[in-house]
Amino acid sequence: QVQLVESGGGSVQAGGSLRLSCAASGYIASSLCMGWFRQAPGKGREAVAVISSLLSIGYADSVQGRFTISRDNAKNTLYLQMNSLKPEDTAMYYCAADPDCTRRDSEWQYWGQGTQVTVSS
Predict the structure, then answer these.
(1) Is 44 exposed, middle or buried (0-12, 13-18, 19+ CB in 10 A)?
(2) Contacts by 112-115 with C-beta closer than 8 Å and gap 24+?
(3) Where are the beta strands (DSSP E) in 16-76?
(4) pLDDT value of residue 112
């Protein structure tokens, strides 16, 4: 099993930055696809950024150019650097992991508890 714990959320003003971290336990974590998802009130869960075990990266169009996903396998940690934050980025952010990067959101196997990001205008 893989356990994921997010941290780094908080409240910021529009234009500000946050860095989310996801600590993963389990010695197979480095072989997994890792991703950040978010869910805003009244909306479904959406993929924000995904990084494969081979470091291929994909971003949602809404965050392209503003967010950067990275992973440090030595530390078993996933990061999401969030810059130029907008009010519409307000959501609960979840770290997730799965052997297959192409799965639909609902099919990802491992999930953290989430960390809240609130961006005020």
Answers:
(1) exposed
(2) 112/4, 112/5, 112/6, 112/22, 113/5, 113/6, 114/6, 115/6, 115/7, 115/8, 115/9, 115/20
(3) 18-25, 33-39, 46-51, 57-59, 67-72
(4) 97
- When pLDDT is cut at 50, 70 and 90, the band that residue 45 belongs to is very high
CA dihedral defined by 24, 27, 33, 36, rounded to 10 degrees? Answer: 0
Radius of gyration, alpha carbons of the chain: 13
| pLDDT value of residue 27 | 65
pLDDT tens for 73-85 read 888 899 999 999 9
Dihedral over Cα of 118, 94, 77, 32: its sign = negative
Mean pLDDT of the chain: 94
Listing from the earlier edge strand, what are the strands of the sheet with 18-25? 3-7, 18-25, 77-82, 67-72
